[in-house]
Structure formats: C-alpha cells, structure tokens
Amino acid sequence: MSQFPDSWGLFQQDIQHDLDIEMEPVAACPSFPDPTSDFDRNVPRICGVCGDKATGFHFNAMTCEGCKGFFRRSMKRKAKFTCPFNGDCKITKDNRRHCQACRLKRCINIGMMKEFILTDEEVQRKREMIMKRKEEEALKESLKPKLSEEQLRVIEILLEAHRKTYDETYSDFSQFRPPIRSDSSKRSMSRSSSFMTQGFSSDDSSDTFNSSPEPGMFLNLQLSDDSDDSASMAMDFSHLSMLPHLADLVSYSIQKVTGFAKMIPGFKDLTAEDQIALLKSSAIEVIMLRSNQSFSLEDMSWTCGSNEFKYKVNDVTQAGHNMELLEPLVKFQVGLKKLNLHEEEHVLLMAICILSPDRPFVQDTALVESIQDRLSEVLQTYILCRHPPPGNRLLYAKMIQKLADLRSLNEEHSKQYRCLSFLPEHSMQLTPLVLEVFGNEIS
C-alpha cells in the first residue's frame, strides 16, 4: 500500500461512511420497490420517522442517520419494546428517544425492512469491496497521465512565442502595398493558370520589403522600413493585381514564423544550416496553420480586421493561384477549424511541423527527431489531460493527418510558385525574402 500514502487516510475515513449508507444487498428480493424511483431531488429530505433532516434511503425508507442506526440495532438484537403510554406516541426529532416501541413501529410503518440489513459477513464483504474500489481508483489516478513541470514550461514558452509573433489586430496590414481587387471583367481575364503566391495566408502583418538580405543571414532578417512606395505604386497591376499586397503579407509572415521558431525549446541547439533548412521547407505550411486563426467558416474567408483585409478565394486568384491549390487549401482550413483546437494544441502543432527531420537538406536528423518527439509527447499528454471528450477522441491522430495534408499543399504551392517566379513581370513584384525562401525549393 505504499503506493498510495496520500490516499490511505481518505480510505479509512470513507469506509465507515459508505458502510453506514447501507443499500439493498445483492441477494435481496427483486419484488421490493425501488424507493428512489419517485423521489424528487428538489424536495427537502425529511426523515419519515422523526422529521429530522434525512441523509438518504436506508433499509427502503427515507430516514435520518439516527433512525437508521436505531432500526438496525433493534432488528439485529431482535429487541421487544413496550410503550409506557397508550401505544400511539407522536415521534419527533426531540422526543424520539422517549419511546422506542412507537419509534420502531413508525420505522416499520414507513416501509423500513429488516431484509435490507446486512449480516456481519455481508458488512465485511462490503468493507473489502469498498477498500478494493478505492485502491483501484487511487491506482488509476496515480497512473493517469499528468503534464510535468517541464512540459508545462514548454507549452508556456510556445504560447508566449506565438503571442509575440501573431498580432490579432492585424494593425500592420496597412503598411503593405495596398490590395487592389480587379472588377469581375478583369477577373475573368486574370488567367488563373498555375501562378501562385502565398497571399491566402491571412496571417500576421508585414511591412513592404525592398532590401535584399545578406547571404546566409536568413535567421537574422529584420523588417525593412526603407520601402519605395512610389516604385511599388508605379507597377503594372493589370494582371495579378493582388500579388504585391499578398507578397508583402507572406513576406512578413515568414519573418513571424522565423521569430516563433527561434523560441521553440531545442531549436537553437541545431546548427544554423539545419535551422535554415527547416524554416525554408516548412514556412508555407506553418503560414497555412497560422492563417486558420483568421479563417471564418461563415463565408470561407480569411478575415483580418477590416473589409479591406478580408481575403476570399477570388482575391487570391488575383495573386496567381488556381483551384488545384485553393480547393484543398480551403478544405484543409475547414477541417482544421472544426477540430476546435486549444491554443496550446495549435502552437504545439506548429512547432512539430517545423521540427520535421525528413525535410530536405537537414543534416542532424537524429537531433531534430528527438526535439520533435518531445513536442509530440507534450501534445499527446496535453490532449489526454486537458482536452475533454468527445473532442479528444482520436484528436492526436487527426492533427498528425493535418501535417500530412500540409505536405501535399506544400508540393502544389511549390509548383505554382515556380510558374509565377519564372515570369519577370511577376517575380519583380515579390519580395527578396519570398524569393530567397521559396526560390530554391525542390519539387
């Protein structure tokens, strides 16, 4: 019993109480009525013998603890009482000790039955059953998964990282090159073939980006405030009119994903080369995950504050998309939204997505895998401990399937991005960061 030092005292306290509330024994006659069937739990419980506060049904009648004990003792001793008065005493809480004969008579009149009294052997068996049940419950509780202090700390760090890198007000969207939506006639001429940028991700906010990052300094990139607005506005927007705006949005989102990744426990233990490899190959997937926060099931749009920054499928086609990407993307967003993930689960899923050891050009796959395994364990434990049913049913498996869906979306995005970037009139509207991150993708 040393397994349960904290619970043993509670066992002993509860055993006598449970024994006192004696219910019908297993061998009792099945013809006895169920006294609880017509009991209204909203009505105050009054002892049918003396009118004191009742504690429940005892020996087939609603009684207080005192009358329960009196009836049990009287039946076990086979006591014979004689009324010193006229044999019709009115039993109350205050005088119930004055006439045992009339009290016992009242017990029988309200339906108390000696057949419901347990024998000494039955009491012992019941005591053993109660002890066994409590020990099993204590063992079950001790074996129940619990979030360790370390796991709670990981979750806390990831939550803080996400909140620092995701602006729910979308206030920085005004710093992008402005969204220009074509009318319906121009939209029909926009030739949404296989052109693509990452603008569907109604994610965090961005400045415009006109300064090219230094080679090998991807992890230290900062936002450029030296945007040439006049040059941006002078571009030809007759085709893919939303491309400049959404390119800025994605460029900023990449930097936010980078900032989030740097705060993942264990990420900085990797070499700079592996950090860059992971970020380049997972960036678009994490942007898609993050954009689910702004996705609305009501109108299937990414809503980022004002109507100016409300993005629908038609808006995204004006940045070079076609439906081979958009249809599965919207389906993915709907499915992920319906999982009703906690914020803790959402940030863990993003971290697991980034720390995937099978990404191209990753060298130390063993270290990446060990970090991902720790994050996966935290996620599974969190679901078991904190996500109530029925939402937690197969939730971990469903979340892992979403990562597989993202791989397919990533592949389609790569195809469409390459078609877009091959055309100078379109690639010149992208940002240096977008060109760097997605320019060297391997199909």
UniProtKB/TrEMBL annotation:
It comes from the Eukaryota. Residues 190-211 have a biased composition (Low complexity). Transmembrane segments: none annotated. Residues 150-439 form the NR LBD domain. InterPro entries: DBD_VDR (IPR042153), NHR-like_dom_sf (IPR035500), Nucl_hrmn_rcpt_lig-bd (IPR000536), Nuclear_hormone_rcpt_NR1 (IPR050234), Nuclear_hrmn_rcpt (IPR001723), VitD_rcpt (IPR000324), Znf_hrmn_rcpt (IPR001628), Znf_NHR/GATA (IPR013088). Gene3D superfamilies: Erythroid Transcription Factor GATA-1, subunit A, Retinoid X Receptor. Its main location: cytoplasm. Residues 44-119 form the Nuclear receptor domain. Residues 177-211 are annotated as: Disordered. The keyword Cell division does not apply. Keywords: Cytoplasm, DNA-binding, Metal-binding, Nucleus, Receptor, Transcription, Transcription regulation, Zinc, Zinc-finger. Pfam families: Hormone_recep, zf-C4. It is found in: Cytoplasm; Nucleus. PANTHER family: NUCLEAR HORMONE RECEPTOR (PTHR24082), VITAMIN D3 RECEPTOR (PTHR24082:SF38). Belongs to the nuclear hormone receptor family. NR1 subfamily. This is Vitamin D3 receptor. The lineage of its organism: Eukaryota, Metazoa, Chordata, Craniata, Vertebrata.
